[in-house]
Write a structure and sequence with these properties.
mainly beta, six-stranded antiparallel beta barrel, two-stranded antiparallel ribbon, 10 strands
C-alpha cells in the first residue's frame, strides 16, 4: 500500500483527489496607516491546492516567417489556488472561530509564511493572497467553503551600507 506521506497533495491511482493540509504561520505586519497588525496561525486540514506557473517569455514576430521568435526571460511566480471547507467537531455549529482566523489571514497586507508538504515540493514557503471567495454553502449552516488565490513570494533582504 502507499505511505500517506508519499501521496499527500496528489491524486490516487483512480484520480480521486487526496486532501492536504496547510499551516499559515503566526505573524505581524505594518498596515498602510503605520499600525502593527498581528494575526494568529491557522492550520487548515482537508484542502485541495493547485499550483501553476507561467514563464516570462518574449515573443517577437519575424517578417517572412510563420510563428514568432521566443526568448526565455525567467520563470514567473507560482500561482496557488487553495480551496476547502471549514467545519467544527460539533457538526451542529458554524465554525465561527476558524472563519474569523481565516478572514484575518485574508486581510494580511504582506507575505504570509506557510508550511505545506505539497507547496514545499515547489520551494514555496511564502505566499501573498491576491483574492479570495467565502461563499455561503447552500443547504447548510455549519459548513463554510473557501477559495484563496495566491502567488508565491520570496522575501528579499536589503542590506544598507
Amino acid at each position: 500500500m502507499f505511505d500517506k506521506e508519499d501521496i499527500v497533495g496528489w491524486s490516487d491511482l483512480l484520480g480521486t483527489p487526496v486532501y492536504s493540509d496547510i499551516l499559515f504561520s503566526k505573524g505581524s505586519y505594518i498596515n498602510s496607516q503605520g499600525k502593527t497588525i498581528e494575526y494568529d496561525e491557522l492550520r487548515l486540514y482537508d484542502v485541495l491546492m493547485i499550483v501553476s506557473m507561467k514563464k516570462n517569455i518574449v515573443m517577437t514576430p519575424v517578417q517572412g516567417k510563420n510563428g514568432s521568435f521566443k526568448e526565455y526571460i525567467s520563470d514567473g511566480d507560482f500561482e496557488v489556488s487553495i480551496s476547502g471547507r471549514l467545519t467544527q467537531k460539533d457538526m451542529y455549529k458554524y465554525p465561527r472561530d476558524l472563519m474569523n482566523k481565516l478572514i484575518n489571514i485574508c486581510k494580511v497586507q504582506d507575505s504570509i509564511s506557510v508550511v505545506s508538504r505539497f507547496l514545499q515540493r515547489f520551494s514555496i514557503y511564502n505566499i501573498v493572497i491576491e483574492s479570495y471567495d467565502l461563499p455561503q454553502t447552500e443547504g447548510s449552516h455549519t459548513i463554510q467553503e473557501f477559495q484563496l488565490r495566491c502567488i508565491s513570494d520570496e522575501p528579499v533582504e536589503l542590506i544598507l551600507r
